[in-house]
Amino acid sequence: MLYQQLASSAPKGASTPSFGTIKRAFVCPPFVSDLATRNFLGLPEIEGHPDVTILSVPYELTTSYGQGTTYGPKATITASSQVELYDPLLPEDLPCGFKIKTAESWSGEGNTLREQLDDIEKYLNSHQNNSFPIILGGEHGMLPAIVNVIGKKVELKDLTIVQIDAHADLRNELDGDSDSHACAARRCLDLGVGKILQIGIRSFSREESEFTTKDKRVEAWLARDILNPCGGEIAWRKWLNTLSEISGPVWLTLDVDGLDSVYVPTTGTPVPGGLAYWQVVETIETIAAAPNVDWLGADVNEIVPDQNNHVTEFTAAMLVTKIIAAHLANKLEEQA
User: Fold this and answer.
1) Which of 250, 263, 248 is nearest to 302 (CA)?
2) What predicted TM-score, i.e. pTM, was given to this entire model?
3) How many CA atoms lie within 13 Å of 294's alpha carbon, on the beta-carbon side?
4) In this structure, are strands 248-255 and 218-222 parallel, antiparallel, or unpaired?
5) CB 52, CB 132: distance < 8 Å
6) Three-class SS of residue 119?
7) Tell me, what's the pLDDT at 111?
């Protein structure tokens, strides 16, 4: 499989932090680098202050199954050059009079797992320019580093994280590692996040199920309930209503395995029975349109490029484009 091919070509220690020094150059495989596009959507370089900034964090140290998310950001940017600039939410094609900047990628500095996460924070802090950030990953284990940066702008107790995911990511540890991607949501709660709304969840442990039942900061919409032909529409409407009623700062974290594996066949841990593409689109549009939401930004993660048909990275590029369009449409409405 592709992720096995990528893993075999990756530098030693790319997925297991115990393999000595962790300091590596991120070299894209030929099918990505040969077609590489510098800017998201193939847009020209901009001058002046950006309205949207695309950030790349090719972080992959705790993946527990399929590997290759290191190459996800570059592959997604490359795929984006084939995405249409038209979106029905906007009066003009993207960038629709706005400035979209694609920043240089995170360098991957750090000799330990903790140093890598700290360096991600430094990278994100260096791009705190009051634009709308969209962070491409990379594994989901980067989320607590993102939240630490958010915590310098807002009170984390007021923050709502909307998590699209196949996995709850609420384990306290996995294989002895409390910073594993399987613990990302749990670590965010430890940092003080006030609310996590999860959708698409369909692979979780007993520990996570019990935690969700006891901790009222977490609300989960299971894929089984959402997609059930008998009553699923009621659960879906409840989800959209919940999003519309959010008040305060919001961060969207979109693990692409939240979608059904037909849309993302080469993500790190593909799980059948996931969300439809249009359900994710409607979730994005509902967050953007919620009247009392301060949408701070988003990350799109667990992208593993697909050598054979490019489905996974193209799906990711389409969803990032939708996030941009929905955010800019909201800005235009505020300016009107």
Assistant:
1) 263
2) 0.89
3) 10
4) unpaired
5) yes
6) helix
7) 74
- The number of distinct structural domains making up the chain is 1
Q: What does the angle CA 336 – CA 329 – CA 294 come to, to the nearest 5 degrees?
A: 90
Q: Which residue, among 278, 317, 320, 321, has the nearest Cα to 299 in the 3D structure?
A: 320
Residue 99, domain extent: 2-335
- Tell me the CATH number at 322: 3.40.800.10
Q: Which of 104, 105, 103, 120 is nearest to 22 (CA)?
A: 120
CB 50 within 8 A of CB 103: no
Beta-strand runs (E) in the chain: 52-57, 100-102, 132-137, 160-164, 195-201, 218-222, 248-255, 293-301
pLDDT of residue 65: 56
The pLDDT value recorded for residue 258 is 97
Which mean pLDDT values do the consecutive 10-residue runs of the chain (336 residues) have? 35 34 44 65 94 94 68 95 97 98 91 86 92 94 95 97 96 79 92 98 93 95 94 96 98 97 90 96 98 98 89 97 98 90
d(CA 200, CA 64): 20
Six-digit token string for 130: 């009051």
Contact 157, 192 (CB under 8 A): yes
- Identity of the residue numbered 15: S
| Residue located via tokens 């320019």 | 129
- CA–CA dist 210, 28 (Å, integer): 40
Residue 21: per-residue pLDDT? 36
